[in-house]
Amino acid sequence: MSDKAPNGKKKMAVGWFSFTCCEDSTVLFTELLNENYDEWRKLVNFQHVKALKTDNKLEGLDVAFVEGAISAPSQEKELKEIRANAKYLVAIGSCASTGLPSASRNEFSEDDKTDRIRWYFETFDYGEKVKRLDEVVKVDDYVKGCPMNVDVFLGVLTKYLQKFGLVDKDVTS
Ligand code: SF4
Q1: Which of 28, 116, 127, 132 is paired with 64 by a 20 to 30 Å CA distance?
Q2: Over the stretch 90-145, which tens digit does the pLDDT of each residue have?
Q3: Helices (H), the chain
Q4: Cα 30 to the chain's mean position, in Å?
């Protein structure tokens, strides 16, 4: 398929990423694709979407949509790589935007830490604290909600399609 949109501009290269979360916004995103894929693919290059395909490329993203909170040093590193490869980065959902509910463990007292919880901390590479995205990288836009507010997401998507000269009016409604 051509990498050009019908108006001759380069399609917007998009990535969709998930960190510590339940991935409900990813489910919503795939539901939106069920309805909109034929139209969106004329304007969007879904360049890095692991939920949809295995052939993914990080370099040269226009917009990275990132769901979930950051709970491990390895995730911080990966998020910084995404940021370095994307012109814009959008936090998707409450966990990415505010940390919660994924960051609930930040509030654990010593008494809350059962043997099982301690086992998780000792066995896996967890950070001291679960972080929202903007504690690690610059975030350009937020789509809050648990899961994400679909109308706000469509508004943000349209904003970037307009910014890249691909639409001059709302094509998502
Ligand atoms: S914000 Fe809600 S829906 Fe989204 S990942 Fe977190 S818990 Fe799941």
Answers
A1: 127
A2: 999 999 999 999 999 999 888 888 898 889 888 988 999 999 999 999 999 999 99
A3: 24-40, 73-84, 93-98, 115-123, 150-163
A4: 13
Under a CB-based contact definition with an 8 Å cutoff, are residues 153 and 26 in contact? no
Instruction: State in Å: Cα 10 to ligand 1 middle.
Output: 32
Q: Which of 16, 31, 143, 146 to mutate to test the pocket of ligand 1 (most atoms within 8 A of CB)?
A: 146
CATH number for position 47: 3.40.50.700
User: Does residue 3 lie in a domain region?
Assistant: no
Letter for the amino acid at 77? K
Q: Tell me, what's the pLDDT at 170?
A: 53
Q: For the chain, what is the domain count?
A: 1
